[in-house]
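ARCHIVE ENTRY
Sequence with per-residue tokens
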Amino acid sequence: MADPVFLITGASSGIGAATARHAAAAGYRLVLAARSTDKLEALAVELGGPECAIAVTCDVTDFAQQEQMVRATIDTFGALDVAFANAGFGAPRGFLGGDPEQWREMVLTNVLGAAYTIRATTPALKESVGHLLLTSSVAGRRPLAGSLYSATKHAVTAMAESARQDLNDTGVRVTSIEPGMVDTPFFDNRPTDALVPDDIARAVMFAVSQPPHVDVNEILIRPVSQPL
């Protein structure tokens, strides 16, 4: 396929930005979506400008904005081949700590935002027989003590499998990306001996580079030193 189109939510930093760079190097045209417009626009310029990459300001908790994101994709590039529902953030552990309003925003972003991305991108992915990816977490495979974030990522893991079953007869592939500890802006105190965003981006590109009959449904990737 010549110049396929790769859409990434949460593209302004971390795993999203790293994936955008790897996808551009692989020949994809990019749609970069996030709330941080300045960072998105700088990344779009870095990746070749409007013929190669566009920035779309999008709050994933707003379905109308997600619909506009997809319309901008089709209007600009004519198709959508890969959609990566990557937007999300975490919160401190402990149900007696943290900010309940932050919890609300996290649940809306991590869970509803991912569901909205599936809803908004599915028609175009069916047309292109494309690929849907969602960022879950190792925390979406095993509960973490006092972690509402872990519950949101369990929801994403389940959502990915639910989407796979729903799309099973369409040819659309679905992959859940499940990172362990990654050194990203997710953490206030940056971890040591962690993965870096490029490690996750390579895993994403492995999944999307498989032949059309191969559907890599889950990739759980942890640093060697991570015990859980």
